[in-house]
């Protein structure tokens, strides 16, 4: 192999290693292209001068740039109070770990790791939520008839389920809490991994979450929907689910450009299919087996969240099934990416 080509080849391998080593501590690419154990040694052997911010930090920055481009293309913008809030949160996330590092406390490293992971995850989740607005503005039509037909073929009666929940206040309360646990479960996971010094597992989870959000938004372009509450329920609404009627009310306004500003404090879910709550549930189920004793609380909360999603998220059953399929696909892709032995077997 010519020396220049060999240098480029090694550079490419070292860059790949510098990324994937954050997700699997046993992963590394040697100069001959063979994966070996002990990524840090191989990393130093290839390009010891390559070092910098966590790939997840880079991914969050690139995601923010991507959302900025989407906003520009669709003619949307973030309102001034939200911009100020984002700036304040960014400064806090940068300053707090530095302040904690000065504390004479033996757990300060774990606390800094937890704050860093939570900050990056919050940035990824926020950019994903904001990205759904320009994506929704670029869609056309609603695909409720098709989604409802598929539900009918599956024997799922959304109206009957909603009517049952609407007459039981206890189910409504539990359903809302379970549906909102989509925010609580990742906090539990990320804090556990920070305390147990498993940054590679934390980064891998965030990579899976980010990739799942990207796939979900891409699929959303092809099947926007108003949701079963708007499409199937006729007459007065006896119970307003947690997701309310965002899709049928906000998506048309975004398309007609009557809504131009995004308020962070009033973000709502616009993606009907695939259901991202279903995506998240599967990711949480997989992560439950990486958190030791916390497995059962995560599994229970994740199951409750998934059960609450049809009503509280106003989702068709097919939305949920497609969401679960997206999660399985993403988990498989990431597994192949971080496990070289599986790639060589394909």
Give your account of this protein's structure:
The protein is 70% helix and 1% strand. With 346 residues, the chain is mainly α. Strands 1-2 form a two-stranded parallel sheet. α3 packs parallel to α5 (108-137) and α13 (276-288) crosses α15 (317-338). The protein is globular and about 60 Å long. Residues 8-52 have low confidence and may be disordered.
How is the secondary structure organized here?
Blueprint: H1 3-20, H2 39-46, H3 55-74, E1 77-78, H4 80-101, H5 108-137, H6 144-154, H7 158-166, H8 169-179, H9 181-195, H10 199-222, H11 228-232, H12 246-255, E2 261-262, H13 276-288, H14 295-312, H15 317-338, H16 340-345
Parallel strand pairs: 1-2
Helix pairs in contact: 1-2, 3-5, 4-5, 5-9, 5-10, 5-12, 8-14, 9-13, 9-14, 10-13, 10-15, 13-14, 13-15
Number of helices: 16
The helix content is: 55-70%
Based on helices, strands and strand pairing, what is the structural class? mainly alpha
The fraction of residues in strands falls at: under 5%
Distance between the termini: 26 Å
Q: Based on Cα principal axes, name the global outline.
A: globular
Query: Whole-number average pLDDT?
Result: 83
Main sheet?
2 strands, parallel
- Kindly report the oligomeric state of this protein: single chain
Could you give the count of β-strands? 2
Strand order of the largest sheet: 1-2
Which residues form runs of ≥5 with pLDDT under 50?
A: 8-52
The topology string of helices and strands comes to HHHEHHHHHHHHHEHHHH
Radius of gyration: 22 Å
């Amino acid at each position: 192999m010519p020396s220049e080509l060999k240098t480029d080849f090694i550079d490419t391998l070292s860059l790949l290693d510098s990324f994937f080593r954050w997700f699997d501590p046993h992963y590394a690419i040697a100069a001959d292209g063979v994966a070996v154990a002990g990524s840090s040694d191989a990393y130093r052997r290839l390009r010891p001068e390559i070092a910098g911010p966590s790939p997840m930090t880079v991914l969050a920055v690139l995601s923010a740039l991507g959302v900025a481009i989407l906003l520009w293309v669709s003619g949307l913008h973030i309102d001034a109070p939200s911009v100020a809030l984002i700036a304040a949160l960014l400064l806090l996330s940068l300053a707090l770990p530095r302040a904690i590092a000065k504390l004479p406390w033996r757990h300060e490293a774990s606390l800094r790791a937890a704050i860093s992971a939570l900050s990056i995850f919050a940035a990824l989740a926020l950019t994903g939520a904001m990205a759904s607005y320009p994506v929704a503005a670029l869609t056309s039509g609603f695909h409720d008839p098709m989604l409802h037909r598929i539900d009918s073929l599956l024997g799922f009666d959304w109206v009957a389920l909603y009517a049952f929940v609407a007459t039981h206040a206890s189910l409504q309360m539990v359903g809302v809490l379970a549906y909102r646990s989509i925010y609580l479960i990742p906090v539990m996971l990320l804090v556990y991994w920070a305390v147990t010094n498993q940054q590679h597992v934390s980064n891998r989870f965030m990579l899976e979450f980010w990739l799942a959000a990207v796939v979900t938004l891409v699929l959303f372009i092809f099947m926007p929907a108003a949701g079963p509450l708007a499409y199937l329920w006729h007459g007065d609404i006896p119970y307003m689910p947690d997701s309310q009627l965002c899709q049928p009310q906000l998506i048309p306004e975004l398309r007609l450009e009557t809504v131009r500003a995004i308020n962070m404090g009033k973000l709502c879910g616009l993606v009907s299919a695939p259901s991202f709550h279903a995506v998240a549930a599967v990711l949480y189920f997989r992560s439950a087996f990486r958190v030791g004793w916390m497995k059962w609380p995560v599994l229970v909360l994740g199951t409750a969240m998934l059960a609450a999603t049809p009503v509280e998220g106003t989702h068709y059953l097919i939305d949920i099934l497609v969401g679960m399929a997206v999660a399985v696909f993403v988990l498989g892709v990431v597994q192949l990416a971080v496990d070289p032995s599986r790639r060589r077997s394909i």
